[in-house]
# Entry
Amino acid sequence: MYTITLLPGDGIGPEVVAGAVQVLQAVQERTGAQFVTREAPFGGCAYDKTGTPLPEETLKLCLAGDAVLLGAVGGPKWDSLPVHQRPEVGALLPLRKHLGVFANLRPSVIFPALADASTLKREVVDGLDLMVVRELTGGIYFGSKHRETLPDGGVKVVETLEYTTGEIERVARVAFDLARKRSGKLTSVDKANVLESSRLWREVVSGVAGEYPDVELSHMLVDNCAMQLVRYPKQFDVLLTENMFGDILSDQASQLTGSIGMLPSAGLGSKVGLYEPIHGSAPDIAGQNLANPIATILSVAMMLRYSFDLPEAAELVEKAVAGVLDEGYRTADIMQPGMRQVGTVEMAKQIGVRLKLS
Ligand SMILES: NC(=O)C1=CN([C@@H]2O[C@H](COP(=O)(O)OP(=O)(O)OC[C@H]3O[C@@H](n4cnc5c(N)ncnc54)[C@H](O)[C@@H]3O)[C@@H](O)[C@H]2O)C=CC1
Ligand SMILES: CC(C)CC(=O)C(=O)O
Ligand SMILES: [Mg+2]
# Structure
């Protein structure tokens, strides 16, 4: 039996998590694996309810379960709160830190049926299968912040970016291990021409490479990488990045697959994995049954594979998603002429039905 803590969060979070839970139930019926889910307040909705975006009880529940499935947090309603009460800084970042999920796997895989759904040409994206390994619990998002008013009335802010050799080594090993199982190619991304932290990053990653003679390591500056991702993305297999670069580049990589609504993620490092779509709370479409639930459904597949060691169940989910896309079902973000537009609820339902029949 596997215990999953559900943190639907804000905006479209509850809609996409509800869809993923439906698919999880289908996996249970199809395979006999037993899942127990427990939901907890987290993010802006938790702040409204309890005065804090990360209630103690929520954290305890997450630490006591086998895995966490998170929707998204944040939205305009909470944007003017003091920074440490904001859902992103006061809940999401500390949750990642408490769970110790230092490696964030963000696969950017194009489903054959969506090769024409991307804004890029078919030949650029067809067959794309790349993996961003993003460092998740260090870097500038976690550094100290300082803000002061200057005598001339101007404002000065200082944010700090810290990394230790240990933090870089452990995420690099995750990326090298993955590259070894895939095509044997790893591209480490940094800004070593400017940043001291990136120079350390490059030094440490090059050092770890000694343990992996079968993996071909290259280094690329982040600005070039952003350009190469849209010029010729299929040159990449595994991309290793620090926290902020990976955040930005993975949103960019998502569009190669048709939509940010397609990209799942797995936060790994501790006993309790954290699974979440890479997108945010999408306030512009929240509550309208418009959100694409596939990123969250594919996050469930990653949970089955990485936390529960159920690779066959993970494949059932991925095949059900591919099958439903082959049948022509599309949410608005991936809609194409001649296809059948459905909402969040119907898309999740179709994937669950297909999974049970497979
Ligand atoms: N992990 C998290 O909880 C994250 C939270 N955020 C928060 O989310 C809020 C909105 O941020 P944005 O910059 O607008 O990023 P976003 O990822 O929420 O949305 C960007 C664009 O993509 C669309 N989109 C996102 N997910 C979609 C889905 N599943 N289906 C269809 N379309 C989708 C949205 O409608 C929007 O047009 C902010 O408060 C931000 O801080 C942002 C990123 C991650
Ligand atoms: C809201 C940020 C802290 C996180 C983010 O954008 C992400 O993890 O993709
Ligand atoms: Mg992001």
